Every structure is written in structure tokens, then in C-alpha cells.
């Protein structure tokens, strides 16, 4: 049975939504859940979980170094358990900075990877596009973008793509476009990846299925990700208002198409992503959105289960070699 660790004390809605998400996950998935946090609370609310008691937990605005100083926090203990092999994956909705530093320092990096990154599959016309990085590394070097591409290829293969194509996010498709960093990265990806490198792609290409993996720095990737979430809300709300203002026949048509609309809404719902893998560390670490509700936490657990089952870390090592 797969052992999943969950940070009960991390996140804007902790601990309530983390607890409810844990209960949903236990009901749906065949796992052994390790819950890190307030011992009395967890024993009372999640009796089927293995409880790892913590205190002196991290706040959402804690500085990254706090995860190393507060060794009895739920996040530090969870990462320590992962490093020691006591659990197969760890999920946290806590601060990105502490979790990223904790994952790289406590769990450790895969040999050959200088800078781990956050990766998430976003909706596209051909199913999904892996966006990497989407928030961990604000500034990068060309070598880091090559690492991201290699890890993104491995992740896309795990998700079912046989020959993933990689695109470098830029302001235009031409090789001469972009900053000096992007131009340097273009030459490096072209040299090292060969036919797996498609070339430059623009923001509109992320969701159109032009490539399977889109590589960028964490600053740009996070903006792209949040923009997609905002557009999804805009489309959903605008559609509702248009239907309501268009009279009885429109309402009747919407009722007949309810299943299709529900499916479309689910596609655009950020909570369905569950979370992003921190790729490049020696263990399966999933970063859930800080504002995650119980459904998002349940889905983050699902993402962690898949990463453990697919042996994602071993596949990345293989791609590096």
C-alpha cells in the first residue's frame, strides 16, 4: 500500500480543509495516510491516519529558511519522513519558498540537476501541456532551462506522451527573438535535445497543443498559470450571465447541456489540477495551491499517488543519463 504524507498545518485554509481533504482521499484511494500536525486534532478527526505530531509550525508568510530551523514543524517532519523512506510521497499547501527549499535541502536533489522546478499539466486541445517552471525559480540560467526541459520530457512520458516535443516560451517564434537568456537557452536546447526541441512558442500556444512541454522561468510561468485560472473564471462567469439574460429558451438549452457545461467547468477548475510536482528532488513532493479547498487537497493526494506509482524520480534520472 502506498504511503502518502499530508501537511495538515500548511495552507491558507489549514487545518480544516486539509482534514476534510484527507478524509475524502481516504474514502476514494487505497492508501496509508501519514498526517503531520496537531496530534489531538488529527486523532479526533482522522482516526485512520498515522499521526506524526508537530508543533512550532510554519505560517504562510514564513521565510524559506524557517523550514530548516523549525525541525518540529509539520512541513519539516514530512520532508524528513520522505527522505528516510518512511513515506512514498509528501503533499503540502504551505508556502512555496519553504517547501521548495525544504525539498531541495532535506530530501536532496537528483544528481545532475542544479535547480528543481514546479511542473503542472495544464489543459490543452490535445489533453494537456506540461508547464515548467510555474513558480519556484524567479531567475534562472540557460542550463536551468535545459534541466526543466529534461524533467518536463520525463513527466510528459509518465502522462502517456511517447515522443514529447518541448517549446521555449518567448515573445515570438523566431530564433532571434527574446532576451539574451532566452536566446542562449534556445541554442542550448537545440543542441542538447535535437528533434525533441520544437523551438520558441508564445503564450497562446500553451493551451493549443503545439507542444507537450513548455519551458520558462518560474516568474513568467506563474503569471501564465494565474492568467489561465483568471480566464477560466471569466469564461465560466460570463457564460452564466449570458444564459440568464437571454431568456427562457436559453435557460432551457443550458439545462439540456448541463453535463457538457459541468465537464467544461471541471476542465477549467484549478482545484482539479490538485498540485504541482517539485521535479528534480530525490522524492515525490507535491505543492498544492495555498488556497486549496478539500477537493483540491484530495486531488493533490491523487497526484502524489500517481507520482509514486509511476516512479517519476527514477524516470527523470533516466532522462538525465
Task: Give the gist of this structure.
It is built from twelve helices and eleven strands. It has helices spanning about 15-30, 40-45, 65-70, 75-85, 95-105, 140-160, 180-195, 220-245, 250-255, 260-270, 295-310, 310-320; strands spanning about 1-5, 30-35, 50-55, 90, 115-125, 125-130, 165-170, 195-200, 215, 275-280, 285. β10 (about 275-280) and β11 (about 285) form a beta hairpin.
Describe the structure.
The mean pLDDT is 89. The chain contains 12 helices and 11 strands. The protein is globular and about 60 Å long. Helix 2 (39-45) links the parallel strand 2 and strand 3. It folds into 2 domains: 1-113 and 280-321, Isopropylmalate Dehydrogenase, CATH 3.40.718.10; 115-271, Isopropylmalate Dehydrogenase (3-Layer(aba) Sandwich), CATH 3.40.718.10. It has an 11-stranded mixed β-sheet with strand order 3-2-1-4-11-10-5-6-9-7-8, sandwiched between helices. It is an alpha/beta fold and 321 residues long. The two termini are 30 Å apart.
Name of the top-level CATH class of the largest domain: Alpha Beta
Order of helices and strands: EHEHEHHEHEEHEHEEHHHEEHH
Largest sheet, in brief, is: 11 strands, mixed
Overall structural class, as computed from helix and strand content, comes to alpha/beta
Percentage of residues assigned to helices: 40-55%
Discrete helix count: 12
From the structure above, extract its key features:
2 domains; 11-stranded mixed beta sheet; 321 residues; Isopropylmalate Dehydrogenase; alpha/beta
